[in-house]
Specification:
Number of strands: 3
Distance between the termini: 25 Å
Number of helices: 3
Helix content: 25-40%
């Protein structure tokens, strides 16, 4: 699997004024977490680091790494969205309706 593993759809992050950055897989996500993340701590940050590390080595962690990365992006205030093709991976991330709480 390694560095070429890709998620079913990218996760978009808002870094500065350059517009959204499309993160396409756990290796790219892991590099961002290590080098460009604004706060390298927090429950979701550490979970994303662990899941992305595992996903690079083991195919069974690919979906979990994406979900953990989205949670870390939300925690850091960087989440800009994701492809409509993957809405089922993030319950509540797109117009869930009144009173719905995301399950991340």
């Amino acid at each position: 699997m390694g560095h070429f593993a890709r998620w079913v759809a990218p996760v978009y992050l808002g870094f500065g004024e350059d517009g959204p950055l499309a993160v396409k897989g756990p290796s790219q996500a892991r590099n961002l977490l290590a080098e460009n993340w604004p706060h390298r701590r927090g429950r979701h940050y550490q979970a994303a680091v662990n899941c992305c590390d595992r996903a690079v080595a083991q195919p069974g962690w690919l979906e979990m790494s994406r979900e953990a990365f989205i949670a870390a992006a939300l925690e850091a205030g960087l989440f800009s969205g994701h492809s409509g093709h993957a809405r089922n991976f993030v319950p509540g991330a797109t117009d869930p309706g009144p009173g719905h709480r995301p399950m991340l």
